[in-house]
């Protein structure tokens, strides 16, 4: 499990990544098999949910809005990043979204997941979970600029 603190370097990278969607990234219309919200992954897409849980450190798994998606969620979408299909979504801590936010990508086949999080549990730093590719990182980083 990889956790990387991004600090100052990520701050500059977020400004650049947030302003560019870049080639190879597209959002597609939802299909019937896509869960509506992150918490639906547990029931409708258990393989995807397990892939997500694998990248969470134990401390985050025990925090309800991380580990069970018991928070304020944004709709899940299907996206293509570098010609690979993913489910993407975001969730935040209820009543404290500005300082506690997570965005994720789970491969459409449920084989892997990556995420970016900024929370009290990460000392307010943006942290990568899993091993995102540069294109995955760029896609998730824009969520912190919106």
CATH topology: Inhibitor of vertebrate lysozyme, Ivy
Give the percentage of residues in beta strands.
25-35%
Strand ordering within the main sheet: 1-7-6-5-4-3-2
In one word, what is the shape?
globular
Helical content band: 25-40%
CATH architecture: 3-Layer(aba) Sandwich
Largest sheet: 7 strands, antiparallel
Between the first and last Cα atoms, what is the distance in angstroms? Answer: 27 Å
- Structural class, judged by helices and strands? alpha+beta
What does this structure look like?
The structure is a single chain. The chain has 146 residues and is of the alpha+beta class. The chain has six helices and seven strands. It has one domain (3-140): Inhibitor of vertebrate lysozyme (Inhibitor of vertebrate lysozyme, Ivy, 3-Layer(aba) Sandwich). It has helices at residues 7-19, 41-44, 46-55, 58-61, 64-67, 134-141, and strands at 3-5, 25-28, 72-81, 84-92, 101-107, 113-118, 126-129. A seven-stranded antiparallel beta sheet has the order 1-7-6-5-4-3-2, with helices on both faces. A hairpin with a 7-residue loop joins β6 and β7. The longest helix is centred in the N-terminal third of the chain and has 13 residues, at 7-19.
């Amino acid at each position: 499990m990889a956790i990387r603190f991004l600090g100052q370097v990520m701050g500059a990278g977020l400004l650049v990544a947030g302003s560019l969607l870049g080639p190879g990234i597209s959002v597609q219309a939802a299909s019937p098999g896509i869960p509506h919200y992150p918490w639906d992954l547990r029931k409708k897409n258990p393989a995807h949910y397990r892939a997500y849980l694998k990248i969470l450190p134990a401390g985050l798994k025990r925090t309800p809005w991380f580990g069970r998606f018991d928070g304020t969620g944004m709709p899940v979408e299907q996206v293509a990043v570098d010609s690979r299909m993913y489910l993407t979504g975001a969730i935040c801590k209820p009543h404290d979204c500005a300082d506690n936010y997570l965005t994720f990508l789970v491969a459409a086949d449920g084989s892997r997941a990556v995420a970016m999080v900024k929370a009290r549990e990460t000392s307010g730093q943006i942290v990568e979970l899993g091993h995102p590719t540069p294109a995955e990182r760029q896609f998730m980083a824009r969520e912190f600029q919106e």
